[in-house]
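Appendix B. Raw example, untouched.
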Amino acid sequence: MKKIKFIYATMLLVLALAMNACDDYYSVTVNGDPGITPTVLITPEESITLPAKEAAGEIEIISNMDNSTISFHVPSDAERWCSVTLEGNRISLALEDNPRMIARSTILTIKVFSVTRKIEVVQEAKAAESFGFPEFLPFEETGLALTEEETNDRETFGYWCRDVRGSEDCADIQRKI
């Protein structure tokens, strides 16, 4: 009987030591759980388009979380032409000249506490300048009247400044501004 008690006690000791040595690799520790559901509003919501020349842009983040919980990630293939800095609740973008005849883009990942958003950063191609379109003017700055077929339904709607319809040339539009 003593032998059986000794075997049970040894097994219990081995089991207790084995359980103590195990780590739970699946647990996630969240530091500073705010006790509230994080809400995040990012402007622009999905994408930002910048010109082919050296350009700068800004992304604004509005959240009920502290600014110290904001972080971002730029893919390594875009780091050489897309520079990103975080100041408070604003992310500043600085893009180098795009020497290519095609547009380039990357996905910027923004994280606020546990909420992750992806913003596409698009830089236009140099092609427009190569084909005689020297500058893109936003519609609001041109003073042009839209026809029924034309609509201003996108953030970057405008005209490439060149006399296409025989109305006004780029220099006339520039003088009006």
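End of appendix B.
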